[in-house]
Design brief:
Layout lengths: L1 H7 L18 E2 L2 H11 L9 H16 L22 H5 L2 E2 L27 H11 L13 H20 L6 H15 L7 H5 L17 H16 L5 H4 L5 H9 L6 H17 L4 H19 L5 H13 L7 H11 L12 H14 L3 H11 L6 H16 L3 H19 L4 H8 L5 H9 L1 H18 L3 H17 L1 H38 L11
Antiparallel strand pairs: 1-2
Helix pairs in contact: 3-7, 5-6, 5-7, 6-9, 7-9, 9-12, 11-13, 12-14, 13-15, 14-16, 16-18, 17-18, 17-19, 18-20, 19-20, 19-22, 20-23, 22-23, 22-24, 23-24
Length: 538
């Protein structure tokens, strides 16, 4: 009996606390966990956690993430050095067994879970909500799945409760609550992203379609935080005028930085959240568009590395669809300076579908932009990349489909010079995709109306394919297109054929003359090989 009583007495202060004694579990008197324990575990009222304490707790969380990363996990923190949180003298003098620790040391979570919202009076739910936010501001190390298992699960359960609470719309969010919400979200989400495999492989050797994306091991918590943020933004109880003080430009920029995450699940949440922010906070709309522009500029002209271009373009597709008419000059500049140059990077297949949608949205808004788009496509037309060339031809068909005859006439000459080169491509998919343009009724109609200009530009390519393209499908499609032109205007067809034969004869004569000149040169050079005289060939 005496031994049991003596065992409960506080021990003498150790001379050194190195955290290596397994019998002495990790203890702490500061941080979020101590504040929650003193307010709830000790039987005190929920509002014992003062505003000052909440501010200190948020600072402690932030500091723990960027602090001394070399500190050992799970170290003991003595009451002499632990900060006082929650403004209670009991916290600084009483040690409670706590189990969650950071790499920065000193911040811990209580092992006892907080009560449910159903178990407290409605007058105290807001304070409980804030305490749960503070509890969820603790970041755990997921690189070791055996570490802090109980605490990780408790945080997950608490996050689920927060999502459910914010979804039910229990009263308007006060300014204090919004501040704590953004602190918790920032602490969990705004982090350094893991290194990408392409950083080691190099841009030329990295293939995004073959490499597996890096999945964040902490997604079990991150997903709940993203869901919570989404529910908070879309909630009718969230006042945009008040929330814009916390969902500010800095917050939006840090969200945009996360679009470079390798994890596609995270990018999908970010896409939805940013779109909701754009819709709810009208004051942020110009800033969001400008920030996305800057991401594109850096991607196009500097790095050509970014994982979230497709998601950002998907958001922009919806934004462009809502542009009012007539289009502002700012929006037209965005098309010319950002969207069209996005065809330049080598990795354009990863986001081409979304990019093509944005381009066609602009043309549907203003048909006069079609000429600008086609000339931009011709400027960035690939020379050695057949896969990109097939994509460009597909996009070209979509643009032509939305084009009117007047705009088509402005660009048809340079356009069909390029189409003619594609028809003669040795890559059968490129030639086949170019010939498929005649399967589109609108495009075929535009070509028929301007056949006098177009047929002379592409007749040579059609004739060469018909004479001997190695691919049978391309050969058959070429014969069909020749037949269409012949039936459409046989006089023009025969004129083009006659002109082609004349040019072919002239080219043959030039070639024969060149070969004869070389023969002369070789003969004279061989006859004067030992004389050292200069050789003049006329």
């Amino acid at each position: 009996m005496i031994k049991q009583i003596l065992g409960r007495l506080p021990r003498a202060k150790p001379s050194k606390s190195d955290g290596n004694d397994p019998a002495a579990g990790p203890t702490s008197t500061g941080g979020v966990g101590a504040a929650i324990s003193s307010g709830l575990g000790g039987g005190g009222p929920l509002n014992n956690v003062s505003n000052n304490a909440r501010g200190n707790a948020g600072a402690a969380v932030t500091g723990s993430r960027i602090g001394n990363s070399s500190a050992p996990l799970g170290r003991n923190v003595s009451s002499a050095t632990a900060p006082t949180v929650a403004g209670s003298n009991r916290v600084s003098t009483t040690k409670r067994p706590l189990s969650g620790f950071f790499a920065g040391g000193g911040l811990s979570t209580a092992s006892e879970p907080l009560p449910s919202f159903r178990d407290v009076p409605s007058s105290e739910r807001q304070n409980l909500f804030i305490n749960k936010l503070l509890l969820c501001s603790v970041i755990y190390d997921f690189t070791d799945p055996t570490k802090d298992v109980k605490e990780k699960d408790m945080k997950r359960q608490t996050l689920l409760e927060l999502v459910e609470y914010i979804s039910t719309g229990n009263g308007k969010c006060t300014e204090l609550v919004m501040e704590e919400i953004t602190k918790m979200v920032a602490t969990n989400l705004f982090r350094s992203l893991p290194a990408s495999p392409r950083d080691n492989a190099g841009l030329d050797n990295f293939d995004p379609e073959e490499e597996e994306p890096t999945m964040d091991p902490s997604w079990v918590h991150l997903q709940m935080v993203y869901e919570f943020l989404l529910r908070f933004i879309v909630s009718t109880e969230t006042d945009a005028k008040l929330a814009k003080r916390y969902i500010d430009h800095s917050f939006v920029l840090r969200l945009l930085d996360l679009f470079d995450s390798e994890d596609p699940r995270e990018r999908e949440y970010l896409k939805t959240i940013l779109h909701r922010i754009y819709g709810k906070f009208m004051v942020h709309r110009p800033f969001i568009r400008k920030a996305i522009n800057n991401i594109f500029y850096r991607f196009i002209f500097e790095t050509e590395k970014h994982n979230g271009v497709a998601e950002l373009l998907e958001i922009l597709g919806s934004i462009i669809n809502g542009f009012a008419l007539p289009l502002k000059e700012e929006h037209k500049l965005f098309l010319v300076r950002a969207l069209i140059p996005l065809h330049k990077p080598k990795c354009v297949p990863m986001y081409h579908q979304q990019l093509s949608y944005c381009i066609t949205q602009f043309i549907e808004k203003d048909n006069k932009l079609a000429d600008t788009v086609i000339r931009g496509l011709l400027k960035y037309w690939p020379i050695t990349n057949s896969q990109k060339e097939v994509l460009f031809l597909g996009e070209l068909e979509e643009v032509l489909e939305a084009m009117q005859s007047a705009e088509f006439q402005h660009c048809m000459v340079p356009l069909f010079r390029q189409v003619g080169r594609c028809l003669n491509s040795s890559h059968f998919q490129v030639a086949e995709r170019a010939l498929f343009l005649w399967n589109n009724d609108h495009v075929a109609s535009l070509i028929a109306q301007n056949r006098g200009v177009i047929l002379p530009l592409i007749f040579a390519a059609l004739e060469r394919n018909a004479r001997g393209h190695w691919n049978q499908a391309v050969h058959g499609l070429t014969l069909n297109v020749r037949k269409i032109f012949l039936e459409m205007d046989d006089k023009l067809f025969h004129e083009c054929q006659h002109k082609f034969e004349e040019e072919e004869t002239k080219a043959k004569e030039v070639q024969e003359k060149r070969e004869f000149t070389w023969q002369q040169l070789e003969y004279v050079a061989s006859s004067n090989a030992f004389s050292g005289e200069a050789v003049l060939v006329t």
